[in-house]
Amino acid sequence: LRVNVKAGGAIPGRKALLPYLTDCYKTDKEKLKNKVAGKKVIYFDETSDACGRFVCAILFSIYPAELIGQRPLLADVSCQSRRCNSGKKSAFILSAMTEYSITYENVIGIATDNASYMVSAFKNILKSVLPNSLHLCCLAHLLNLVVSVFIRPFEKATAWSQAFSHYFSNSGARKFRYLEYLESIGESKKLPPQPVTTRWLSMFTAIQYHKKLVGAEKTFVELEILDHPDNDSLDRLSHLLHDYKHLVFELNFVSARALPYIRALRLFESDSTIGVMLFSAIEDIVCDLAAQKEMPRESVADILEQQVETFLSSEKNELIAKVNKAVTGAEDKLMKYFSEANGIHPAREFIKQLQYFHPKRSLMFDLSPALHAIPGFTSVPEAEKIRYRSLAREFSFEEESTIEEEVQAVMDFWKGAEIDLPNLSALGRTYGAVTCSSAAVERVFSYYNKLLSDERQRLSEASLKELMFLYINGQNL
């Protein structure tokens, strides 16, 4: 080491590492600047950090995409002492575009959450500057709003999921006893998921877990109370068990009705998702809510048949009222954004018409559809649309395919159609592949919070930006 390695292999200090970090950052930033040719969707969001600053992040996706499931590339991170208004947020986005030499005409979408300041930024500033851009309000964010309304009446199911998981927080002994208990009754040794009320996919996953094991969990809690009678967490669980049959009903009902929400949330949050698949997931939820609203008694009766406990007529009526409240509230919230007549989601028609670029779903459109929300579609020759209809009938993929497999099949179709369908292929590989989610920015913030741990809060803003850039973009450059 003394002969072949500088300083004998000593671990370099901060002063030696900082120039290396900056050099790597500058090199990769030049690579990104050379990579941004093509159509772009820009992702933007803001959060607060552990130091009380407001952090803005901006990412790019480039279309046609080189790889399916390739994550957006981080362009910039900015820390501010005060929350930015819509004007400053717009200026941050336009400044990043200038730095990377992105023309206004090549931005086809701005993906953000549905916060009022972002709606205002796009409507009052960005829309007039970016002539070909749509405001792609995050579908995962909107669906979380819908789910929060749907699940609100089922307080026992959510309370049990949170309280049971909380019982094992910071206690290895309790975890050990529970896992040993599961093994003794022939169940797999798996701790309960940690539900997060702002991430409803985690709550649905937890409720499905407890639906299967609630009987065993009840026995485990009763055994724990015998050995540890003075425990606040056990008191909370015991209180919830006083109305055990209603708890079981709520776990069974939410678990049974969760499937379309789970599929949609996974779809909207996945990096592999493409635009052609989005609207059908929304339609599945609309149809499920309509069926429950039309036959609430039957919906409740189906769940009650699975239970050993009996319910009085008055109790059944209370359950029907609870289901009606959940279904009506969720439907109203969903229709606020996606109603055919007056849905306020700014890209609703665009998302709906993207289905045309899924070969199987394209057959439900008229022979010569007027897809006015798809830029450039009116220039496609009629003969090419007819040829596409013929080729679409030959398209096939396994019905049990994963999201990734279906995505790959659709994109392979369009890549292989470049000669037969040159215009539609270009549109399909660009607009048909566009996502409508800001989940990528949330993942950036998640890493940011891990990076800025309690032990590292003296990191400078420049070092934070450089570390974030290098980590998020990784091997994609």
Explain what the structure shows.
- The chain starts with 13 loop residues before the first helix and ends with a helix.
- The mean pLDDT is 88.
- It has 20 helices and five strands.
- It is an alpha/beta fold.
- Strands 3-2-1-4-5 form a five-stranded mixed beta sheet, sandwiched between helices.
- Strand 4 (107-112), helix 3 and strand 5 (134-137) form a beta-alpha-beta unit.
List the helices and strands and how they pair.
Blueprint: H1 14-33, E1 39-48, E2 54-63, E3 73-80, H2 86-99, E4 107-112, H3 116-129, E5 134-137, H4 139-151, H5 155-166, H6 172-184, H7 200-227, H8 232-241, H9 244-257, H10 259-269, H11 278-294, H12 296-304, H13 313-338, H14 348-353, H15 359-362, H16 382-394, H17 403-416, H18 422-430, H19 439-451, H20 461-473
Parallel strand pairs: 1-4, 4-5
Antiparallel strand pairs: 1-2, 2-3
Describe the structure concisely.
The longest helix is centred in the middle third of the chain and has 28 residues, at 200-227. The protein is α/β, with parallel strands linked by helices and 477 residues long. Helix content is 57%, strand content 8%.
Features:
alpha/beta; five-stranded mixed beta sheet; 20 helices; 5 strands; globular
Q: How many individual helices?
A: 20
Write the H/E string, N to C. Answer: HEEEHEHEHHHHHHHHHHHHHHHHH
- Span from first to last CA? 33 Å
Question: What is the global morphology?
Answer: globular
> Which class do the helix and strand fractions yield?
alpha/beta
- Biggest sheet: strand arrangement: 3-2-1-4-5
What are the segments in which pLDDT stays under 50 over at least 5 consecutive residues?
none
> What's the β-strand tally?
5
**If you compute it from the alpha carbons, what radius of gyration comes out, rounded to the nearest whole angstrom?**
26 Å
Q: What is the overall pLDDT average?
A: 88
Please give the largest β-sheet. 5 strands, mixed
The portion of residues forming beta strands comes to 5-15%
Helix content: 55-70%
